[in-house]
Amino acid sequence: xxxxxxxxxxxxxxxxxxxxxxxxxxxxxxxxxxxxxxxxxxxxxxxxxxxxxxxxxxxxxxxxxxxxxx
Length: 70
Hints:
The chain is an alpha+beta fold. The protein has a domain at 23-69. It has 2 helices and 2 strands. It has helices spanning 25-37, 57-69; strands at residues 9-12, 40-44.
């Protein structure tokens, strides 16, 4: 088996929404905390996995800003 050293895991994550189609930041915080606790070192946000085509410009800026501060 190959031993890998100094490898960081970056996880592509979804953008959770609430029942009113707003970004669910509480769920997003739980998700990112869980991923950090289980080995992720960072995230890929706003890709097609993250539903970026459905977000407004202001929602994208808010999403990126909130995750950067976490």
